[in-house]
Amino acid sequence: MWHITKREIYNNLNSLRFALTTVLLLALMVTNAVRHIREHPKRVQKYHDAVTASMNLLTSRADDSLYTLAHEGPGTLYKKPSPLHFCAAGGEAFLPDRVDSPSGSRGFWRLEYPDVNINMKNVGPDVSQVDWTFIIGYILSLIALLFTFDAISGEREHGTLRLTLANAIPRHTVLIGKFLGALVSITIPFMLAMLVNLLMISSANEIHLSTEAWGRLGIILFIALLYTCLFLALGLLVSARVQRSAVSLVILLLTWVTFVAFMPSTLAALASGFSSSMSRHEYSDRYGQSYHKLRRTWRYAWYQSNDEKMLRIRGEWHTKIAVRGERLAGEYLTFKITQVQRARSITSISPAALLQHLFEAFAGTGLDRYQQFTENAQRYAREYREFIVDMERGDPESRHIMGVREGMSQKPVNPEAVPRFEDTRNIGKDFNTAATKLLLLTLFVIVLLAGAYLAFVRVEI
Questions:
Q1: Which residues face 104 on adjacent strands?
Q2: How confident is the model at residue 58 (pLDDT cuts 50, 70, 90)?
Q3: Helix residue ranges, H only, 257-365
Q4: Beta strand pairing status for 77-78 and 98-99?
Q5: Cβ of 151: how many Cβ atoms within 10 Å?
Q6: Which of 2, 31, 207, 446 is packed most tightly, with the most Cβ within 10 A?
Q7: Chain-centroid distance, C-alpha 385
Q8: Cα–Cα distance measured from residue 366 to residue 372, given in angstroms and rounded to the nearest whole number
């Protein structure tokens, strides 16, 4: 096996396709690094400026009174840009980077999710982004097929396979040797290009990769190699089934176009076309209907109460309106995300779509990252409300009527005591999100390798 592996590596290293692969991967990885070095500092600066402005506004509200904090809210919450954006862009340009907490003249603030225009068209595969998803998903997979299309059929044409098997070498040894030889031959230029890419990015003064980011890069590298093994196994399977290497190449190119280029976008379009939809206008109508229904229910009690009781009714009214509006906004967001997740499940038939979803999960971009960000915002909103309630209870001079200025504490609040929003990422959640897709990708590799072995065992030399 080791002798066959060394022979395959030697033949590949001395071939034109190895040289072209090295040049192409280096060019793409350098382009990717240059683009990230130029654009990522702008994203980080924009994020820090927005967070600073939001924090200053929150501090000014704390200096006023507790009612102002409860009425105006904590301000806009922003999503932290991922330092691994170069691995998977993930439709970040189309997904919102913030959660709003608008206030109104009618009471408490509530969370709102702006521009929830989430669909498969803008969070699906995007070949215009020269990220690792494109380089590995499209280019490296095609290279893997070009290294294996003639691995068996080519030797059958030249008669060398008959001589090899005449030496009583087991067929599985030949197959594994060719697989390992092709894998090492592709891994050499890929690792070289990847190291140049990471060296350029990590040496840039504006970019800092933490220990966690390097760990995520290790996981992404493992997924990339597993994905490459899938197409190496596919190339060996087809090469073992056909007599001529030219026929093998044509079949593999058609298969690649179908599963990598054609299937993800087509399945996404079909899934989006058959799914139900809810427009922003319909959501606004539902909120308006809920508001008027509550107003009709409370109007009589509002005007028939004495001052103390009326204040309490007004407080309950404002609280219910805020809770109902935030619940409807959350339902609308969940509906849109669920629709896209269903479509993404269908596109998982394509290995390229699987790779994209896995890269997004561990790079911290795309729809899964946005969903985790909104969960962070919702958790912070609960903490912020609990803080308001605790501060209100701590003021003995207050009437403890939440939602109205006259019934709440008018004392200023220490700005340092106000909870701060932190957009954290949890690698455990990322693993839970990606576990099924990672198992599916591994299953594809095992099935194709088993198919290649069975085809090679049954082939007539």
A1: 107
A2: confident
A3: 263-274, 280-303, 307-347, 351-363
A4: antiparallel
A5: 26
A6: 207
A7: 30
A8: 10
